[in-house]
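Reading a protein record of the kind used here takes only a little practice. The record below shows the convention in full:
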Amino acid sequence: MNEVSLLRLYVLRAMYLFIVVGLAAYLWPGVLDPDKHWRLMQNQASCMLAAFSLLCVLGLRYPLQMLPVLL
């Protein structure tokens, strides 16, 4: 099996970091606020994006194994 270049691994980790930082700034303050009430559909989408951001945190450590998460 061919090895992946170090540059491509760092680019992949940078994409995971970009997703994590973006969702942390936009989504997580609303998720952690206990007084915020959302509609059902907005709540489901927010929970799905929160789970995606947690999986992207794992992608920082294991970029190739978590590549299907991005796809």
Remarks:
- The mean pLDDT is 87.
- Residues 7 and 13 are 10 Å apart (CA to CA).
- Residues 40-61 form the longest helix (22 residues).
- Helices lie at 6-26, 28-32, 40-61, 67-70.
